[in-house]
Design a protein that fits this description.
This is AraC family transcriptional regulator. This protein is α+β, with helices and mostly antiparallel strands and 346 residues long. Helix content is 42%, strand content 23%. It is built from twelve helices and twelve strands.
């Protein structure tokens, strides 16, 4: 469920500097918030938390501004990154790199560890609205490696960004039907999509694929789809991809592998991952063997031990023991606490 972070009107907007971080000053990071004195003052911010992440919908009928200086950073070194999806009005960012303005349909990333000044300007209908997501920077770094310390602006023309916004909006609007793990998974998926969009934006002119490279992609996809079929063969792949077995061998040589090496390598890798992530009560080793295309559990066990140095039962036992030990350590030491993710105007 969402919660109201703050709500300002004519009666209390002059107290915004003391109120926007909450009674214990746990929300956001230090900075100077200002709300313009206008005939109508209406500022509202609502939040949905997902672990250390906050998804915040902010709507205002009044211009706002927020400044974070080096002094603020020295006093409060909270390192948060903010993902902004601008819906109405403008978001103007000023920092040591210059001035930029985001408009409806634009996507922005800002970070709390660099000084900045942000203005949230209303549109001709006196509305400013953003969906912004506050996330500890060390978490976001798992998805976006590019430098965004002084801000990153992108138009929402990439499909990944639009889908990410829809996912985060759905999580925000969920009325409690989603479990915590599902909400976290969706947020992480959105971050992954954003990371893909940022990386793709750096490729101004992607390299053109040759015909052989395109054909190889088709072959690899066919093998992936039919990996569980024990009858998978070069003849089956060649026919399915509309090429000759000889040309198939040529394409696989581009990857410096043979058909049998590629298939058995993929089958064993998927079986290994399946063993590590599954419970013996839910699925047996035999089912896993058949599920990745082996004709018999005995053959699977022999090949698995030859490659990984332990038979499937031993490997699964080692994974279970490691997982139990990790749970024991977390229980005894406790989970690290992240600062509450939040920030009004980054």
């Amino acid at each position: 469920m969402t919660e109201t972070l703050f709500s300002f009107d004519k009666r209390n907007y002059r107290e915004c500097q003391q109120m926007f971080r909450g009674t214990r000053e746990q929300e956001y990071y230090l900075g100077e918030l200002r709300i313009e004195d206008a005939s109508t003052v209406d500022v509202r911010s609502e939040r949905k938390t997902v672990g250390a992440i906050s998804i915040i919908k902010q709507r205002s009928a009044t211009n706002l501004s927020f400044r974070r200086s080096r002094q603020h950073i020295r006093e409060d070194a909270t390192d948060l990154s903010i993902l902004w999806f601008v819906k109405h009005g403008e978001l103007a960012l000023s920092n040591q790199c210059g001035n930029k303005v985001a408009r409806p349909g634009d996507f922005v990333i800002t970070r709390s560890m660099s000084p900045f000044f942000i203005e949230c300007r209303t549109d001709s209908d006196n509305v400013h609205e953003v969906l912004h997501v506050t996330v500890p920077t060390h978490i976001l770094r798992s998805y976006i490696q590019q430098n965004f310390s002084t801000g990153l602006f992108m138009p929402m023309e990439r499909a990944e960004l639009a889908i990410a916004e829809n996912i985060l909006t759905d999580v925000f609007e969920d009325d409690g039907g989603l479990g915590e793990e599902s909400a976290r998974l969706l947020a992480e998926t959105a971050f992954g999509l954003i990371g893909n969009a940022v990386r793709a934006a750096e490729d101004v002119q992607p390299a053109r694929q040759s015909i052989a490279e395109r054909r190889l992609e088709e072959v690899l996809r066919f093998i992936e789809v039919h990996l569980s079929d024990p009858q998978l063969s070069t003849a089956m792949v060649a026919k399915g991809c509309g090429i000759s077995p000889r040309y198939l061998s040529f394409l696989l040589r581009l990857r410096e592998t043979s058909f049998s090496e590629l298939v058995w390598e993929q089958r064993l890798a998927k079986a290994k991952a399946w063993l590590a992530s599954s419970d013996p009560h839910d699925i047996s080793i035999s089912e896993i063997a058949y599920g990745v295309g082996f004709k018999s559990p005995a053959h699977f066990s022999r090949m698995f031990k030859r490659v990984f140095g332990a038979n499937p039962r031993e490997y699964r036992g080692e994974c279970s023991a490691r997982e139990a030990m990790a749970v024991q350590v977390e229980t005894s030491e406790g989970f690290p606490e992240y600062p509450v993710a939040g920030q009004l105007l980054q």
